[in-house]
Amino acid sequence: MSATNFLENLYIYFYINKEFKMLTKNKVAALVEHMPDTFSVDELVERVLLLQKIEQAQKEIENGEGMDWEDFKKEMEQW
To answer: What is the tally of structural domains in the chain?
Structure first.
């Protein structure tokens, strides 16, 4: 995957989610810094998306949209 395809894929992902997400150079640099010396663009995209999901979950928790752990366990028992 070329750098152009990488950027296009990120744009498409964020567009599909209907929310404008911003990456900073510092966030991407920190991700790259903790990766092995060689990695694929797909691996970087996966980490960027994971970071975005974690940040979204943190925002939901801050807004009281999360589920209490005990409630979650009870819901899982019903499955």
So the answer is: 1
> What tens digit of pLDDT does each residue of 10-63 get?
656 555 555 556 778 888 888 888 889 999 888 888 888 888 888 888 888 888
pTM: 0.57
Angle of the 25-33 helix axis to the 41-62 helix axis, nearest 10 = 120
Residue numbers of the domain that contains 28 = 3-77
The region that residue 25 occupies, defined by phi over 0 for left and psi between -120 and 50 for alpha, beta otherwise, is alpha
